[in-house]
Amino acid sequence: MAKHKKTRLMATLGVACVSIILSTSTASQSRKPAGGSLPPIDPQRVQDQDLMTWADYRPIPGHNWADPSLKPERGFRLAVVGIDFPGQPFVVSLPKGSDPFGNPQIEPMAREKVPQFYADFFMKPSPVNHGQTINGYWMEQSRGKFGITEVEVFGPYRMPKPIWAYGLNEYGQNDETPDGSKADSRMERDCDAVWAAELGRDVRKDFDAILRLYASYDETGVWQEFGEMKFNTKEDIPAEWGNPNPAKPRWIPTRYVEWTSWLAGSQQWGLSSMRQGENSGTITHELGHFAFRLPDLNNNPYIKPYRRVAAGPWDMMDRGSFNGPGGPHKRWVVPPTQGAAMPAGLMVRNRLENKFIDESELLTLTRSGLAESGLAVAEVTARAVDPLPDTFAGILVKLDGAEPVDRTPPDDPATNPLSAGTPNYNFYSLEVVQRIGYDSFTPDNGVLIAKNKDSLRGRNGGPNEFNSYIWVIDAHPEDIAMVDYVKPNGKKVTRTVADYRQLNDALFHAGLDSGSSYEWEDTPNRLRFYVIDLRRDKDGILVYTLAVRSLDGAGPGERGAALAAQPGLKVKQPDTPVMFTLANTGKGATTDAGSSGQAKHPGAHFDSDVYRLSVSVEGKGWAARLLTGLAAVKAGASRPVTVYVSRGDAESAKSATIILRATSESDPSKTAMAAVKVSR
C-alpha cells in the first residue's frame, strides 16, 4: 500500500506543487489568517453513499420529469412479466420482515397482485417509490426526448424449476445443486415458454423490451452482505444459509471473491439482461443497454492486481447505477427503495451517444485549434438542467493531430492500479455536477473532467482489463482510505483501491482551500484545464467558469495586465476586505477560432485571459488571504479582486503593505503588481 500511495503522489506532483505555491506564496500568507473565518468560495463536501437518505433528494426547480402526463418524443413499450418458483414465492407476498434476508419492508400482498405492484413501483410516482420512477429518470436525462410510454403486465406465472436451477448456472456454481444435477437452465427461455403457453401465442415482438421480474433476489445485491459481511469465514455459515443438502458445503463460489453463503449465491445474477429480482434497482441501467446499446463501464473491484474504476459514481453505466439512499450495501432491500434506487445521471459522452444533447450545446475545441486561437473561457451549467442563457452543457477538447492522438506514455496496469490502460482516448470533456434530481445521490457538487473514446467498445489492456470508453480524472487520486464494512468479529475491511467510491472526491472545485484542486494539466497531451469561478442563478442552479489552454501556443491576441489598489484603510477586524482592480490591457484574438477543426463560437470565448494571483504582506503580525488563485478577464475589461487582511495582537506592527500580483497564464512575462498600505 505504501508503494501504491507513492505512485499516486508522483503521478500528481505537478498539480500538487502548483497548489502549494498558490496557497503559500510567502511566509506571511497563511491558509487561514489569525482571527479569519471566511469559508472557501467552493468547499468540497463529499457525502459518502452509506450516509445518504431520501432527505438528500433535491428536486429540479420547475420540473417533475416523473409526471406520467408528460409525453416523450420517442416512446418505449415495456412488458413486465412476473414469475415465481416452486418453493420460492414472491418476497412481497410474505409477512413483513419474515424471510432470511429481513424482507419485505412493506406489508404483504396477494400473489396475483405482485406483477402489477412492481410495474407501478417502477413506472408510477407513489409514496412507496418516493415519487421516483424509471420513466422519470429517462425523461430527466433526455429532457423529454425518451420515455417509457406503454407498460403491459403479465403473470404471475410459476416456473418449472426451483430458483437455484437458474441461479447456479454461473461462476463455477453449476455443480452445487441440492439434488446433484447440473444447473444450466436459462431463466429467460423457461419464462418465455411459460408466458407464451399461457397466452397461446408469442407476443415478445410487440414490445421494445421485456422485464422478467422474478421472485427472490439478484445475487449482485446479496452476495457480499450475506456472505463475507455476515460471516467471518465460510466455515461459520450456519445450516439455514447453506445448501439444503447437508452433505454439501454451505458456501459457494461467486463472481468477485472465493465464497458467499449458498443461499445468497444460489440467486440469479443480472448479467446485463432484463431479468430482475425483487431487490434490483438497476433496471434503469439495463435499459441503457437495451434502448441505446450503451455498454458497461464497470471494473472488478475485488481481484488483484487492482484496476481503478472508469467513471464510478458519476455515470449510470458504471457503478453510478448503485447510487441511492444507504449506499451499495443496501441493495438487498425489498422493494428496492435503497441502494441503487437513484442512479447517477449520464456523462457528456453518453448523452451525446444517446442524442440527448448535441454539439451545439457544447463548446467544442481542438488541441491544435487552442494553440492557434489562445485559451478559451466559458460558463458551464449543471448537467441536470438545460444550459442557462449564454452557457454550455459542457466543453469538449478533441485530441487532434498526428497519430497517436492520445500521447499519454504507456504504463503497466499490473503495477499501477491507477493506470487508464491503453492510451487510446480521443477527447476530453468538462461538465458540472450538482446534487439535484437524479444527481442528488452523487457524492459532491463540482466540475467533472474526463477523457473519452470515440468508440464505445474496447478493452483497456493489461490484467483484469475491462471496457473503458470514459476515464474520469481524479482530483484526489490518493487512496480514500475508508472502511467498507465491519465483519462480525469486529475486523474492519477497507475499500479496495479499485472500489468505485474511490472517485467520490474526484470533482474539481474553484478557489483556494476548497479541499480539492482547481486545475489539471495533461503535459503529454499539451493541455491545461482551469476551474476559475462559480455562481448560482435565482433557482440555485450551479454555473462554473472554466477555461482550457494549449501548452503549445497562446494565439494571436496581445496579452497584458494592470493592477490598481484602493487607498489605504484601517483594519479593525479580521478579514477586512481590501479591494484591487485587475485590468486585461491586452487585445483579444481577431480570429473566430474556427481553425484546425475547432468549432466556431465567434469572439466571445476566446477574448479573455486567465491570471494567476498571489498576495504577500510586509509587516510583522499581519496576514492577507485570497479566496481564489485565478481570475479570468476579457480583453479591455477589468474586474475587482478582493484581498482579506487581518492583523495579529497588540505586538503587531502599526501598519503593513499588502502586495497583490497577477500573471498572465497565456504569457507569463505579462505581470502586474499593486501595493496598498493598511494600518490598525
Give your account of this protein's structure.
The chain is an alpha+beta fold and 680 residues long. The chain has 3 domains: 61-293 and 312-346, no CATH class; 358-448 and 457-550, no CATH class; 562-679, Immunoglobulin-like (Sandwich), CATH 2.60.40.2310. 12% of the residues lie in helices and 22% in strands. It contains 10 helices and 25 strands. The chain has helices at 2-11, 13-23, 114-123, 134-142, 164-167, 187-199, 262-265, 283-292, 348-353, 367-373; strands at 77-84, 150-158, 209-214, 251-252, 260-261, 275-276, 362-366, 376-381, 394-398, 427-433, 446-452, 470-472, 483-486, 492-494, 519-522, 527-536, 542-550, 562-565, 576-583, 608-618, 622-625, 630-634, 638-647, 655-664, 671-679. The strands form 7 sheets. The chain has a 5-stranded mixed beta sheet. A 4-stranded parallel beta sheet has the order 2-1-3-6, with helices on both faces. β13 and β14 (492-494) form a beta hairpin.
List keywords for this structure.
680 residues; alpha+beta; Immunoglobulin-like; 3 domains; five-stranded mixed beta sheet; four-stranded parallel beta sheet; 10 helices; 25 strands; 12% helix; disordered N terminus
